[in-house]
From TrEMBL:
Pfam families xrefs: DDE_Tnp_4
The DDE Tnp4 domain, residue ranges: 110-263
A GO molecular function held by the record: hydrolase activity
Principal location class: nucleus
GO cellular component term of the entry, any: nucleus
Cell compartment(s), UniProt: Nucleus
Organism the protein comes from: Coilia grayii (Gray's grenadier anchovy)
Protein name as annotated: DDE Tnp4 domain-containing protein
Residue numbers spanned by region Disordered: 284-304
């Protein structure tokens, strides 16, 4: 099934078990789901899908939108914050990635991804990002296995990563990460202790070896989010590597469905190796960032906590993780 639908049979069965197999129209939910997956995998028009399945275009359109709504309804049970025990396991996983026990309280790696779109003519400039293409943004937090645990979709491409963060539920509701844990991100984000704890690299030029060691270990742990985006773009290359030709109001739901399907696939061991992808798009995952913006008013800097972590990175007992 991978060539045409980008899911293994086990992943497809898990998806069908989640959305239900009860028929609400003549051809059944499995066929409707295949319409949707083929459309996602190929990035083609509804007309092309209707020809491929020899079904009326209006029926295909209805099936795709009905199925996407069903998949989107799985969000809360598929993309969610970890339990207390899962947090412990996640911290241990990030410590292994970083090669340092200083990162054993990491609750996720955060980054943003630009998804190409056809902008509405009236507000096109709002969608033009710093790389001069039109996009909608996906902000994501992933665990040490590249599973999504928090996503925010819909901000236009012109909005800076740090502004997407400060206007996202993750930041405004302050429910994650829990006390005693922190997120890690790249230099596009401010280093914060409050209202959420977010650790970022030291800026160049570095002052000493402590800062260099911290930056190196943080990068080793942080890049798992780029791997998640790479897997997402490899699986749904037609969605993420060319402009989505759908109504701009439908774009967030499509992206959300891709993150849900990503987690379902990971749960079934259905992982695409980005490095071995035949289209050679592994390098498309990472996004460069401009100079970081200043921390928003009312925040507390995480600089002191970062200095503490940097000291732990070079502690003698930390060598067991190397």
């Amino acid at each position: 099934m991978h060539a045409d639908f980008r899911l293994s049979r086990a992943s497809f069965n898990a998806l069908m078990d989640a959305i239900g197999r009860e028929a609400d129209h003549g051809w059944g939910p499995e066929i409707a789901c295949l319409f949707f997956l083929f459309w996602l995998a190929s990035g083609t028009s509804y007309r092309v899908v209707s020809r491929a399945f020899d079904m009326p275009r209006t029926s295909v359109h209805r099936a795709i939108h009905t199925t996407s709504s069903k998949v989107a309804s799985l969000f809360a049970q598929t993309v969610h914050h970890p339990s207390e025990q899962e947090l412990v396991n996640m911290g241990a996983g990030f410590a292994r990635l970083a090669g340092s026990a200083a990162f054993s309280r990491v609750a996720g790696s955060i980054d943003g991804c630009h998804v190409r779109v056809k902008p509405p003519a009236r507000d096109a400039d709002c969608y033009l990002n710093r790389k001069l293409f039109y996009s909608v943004q996906l902000q994501a937090v992933v665990d040490h296995t590249a599973k999504f645990v928090d996503v925010c979709v819909g901000y236009t491409g012109s909005v800076h990563d740090s502004r997407v963060l400060k206007n996202s539920p993750l930041y405004l509701e302050r429910k994650y990460p829990p006390p005693g844990y922190f997120l890690i991100g790249d230099g596009g984000y401010p280093c914060l202790y409050y209202p959420i704890t977010l650790m970022t690299p030291y800026r160049q030029p570095l002052r000493n070896q402590l800062q260099a060691a911290y930056n190196s270990r943080l990068t080793k742990a942080r890049v798992v989010v780029e791997r998640a985006f790479g897997i997402l773009k490899t699986r749904w290359r037609a969605i993420f590597l060319k402009a989505l030709e759908v109504d701009i109001r439908y774009v967030p739901e499509v992206i959300l469905c891709c993150t849900i399907l990503h987690n379902i696939c990971l749960s079934q061991g259905d992982v695409l190796d980005v490095l071995d992808d035949e289209d050679g798009i592994a390098g498309a995952a990472g996004e460069e960032h401009p100079e970081r913006e200043a921390a928003p008013p009312g925040t507390v800097s995480g600089a002191q906590e970062r200095d503490r972590l940097a000291g732990l990175c070079c502690a003698p007992q930390d060598h067991d993780y190397i």
